[in-house]
């Protein structure tokens, strides 16, 4: 593992690179040269069993799509050391796809950030049984859920704040609690 981390730490992506894909990385964290990634618009990270910490991806100014899948050790998308930054976190991010992240607990490790995910339009959650979404979804227009328990992932009262929601797509394995069914009925734009 340490060898992989050392090799990747020495890489400096081309400054004009727009897509970053990482598959099968066995290290715990990845410290890429963030100033070299200022033009990144799409990131795909998957099948990284030990990957615990995302580098400060929230500070990438042009990032529009983030897909995370099969990251068994990942608990939070944004670490507390990113929260203190002066700019908005994920300022242009429009699409997040979260798949098979069994230990993902939430967006933030510490506290809440007002200016986070302010441009998010599409969110897809598949098999993220520990995820608890409490904020950041107001601008979402399309929400797709598969194999998740709504009462756990979306606490009571949280769905009514999805004021921009136009499409709610439920695939197999979605469980509702009675209170949340009432909240969904009150969403006018479905």
Give your account of this protein's structure.
The protein has helices at residues 2-10, 80-83, 150-153, 178-185; strands spanning 19-23, 42-46, 65-69, 76-78, 95-99, 106-108, 122-126, 142-146, 167-170. It is α/β, with parallel strands linked by helices and 190 residues long.
List keywords for this structure.
single chain; 190 residues; 7-stranded parallel sheet; 4 helices
Which value, in Å, is the CA radius of gyration? 17 Å
The major sheet is characterized as: 7 strands, parallel
- Strand portion: 15-25%
Structural class per helix/strand content?
Answer: alpha/beta
The average pLDDT score comes to 78
Shape: globular
Helix content: 10-25%
Strand order of the largest sheet: 1-2-3-5-7-8-9
| Number of E-state strands | 9
Low-confidence regions: none
Elements, N to C (H/E): HEEEEHEEEEHEH
Between the first and last Cα atoms, what is the distance in angstroms? 47 Å
* Number of DSSP helical runs: 4
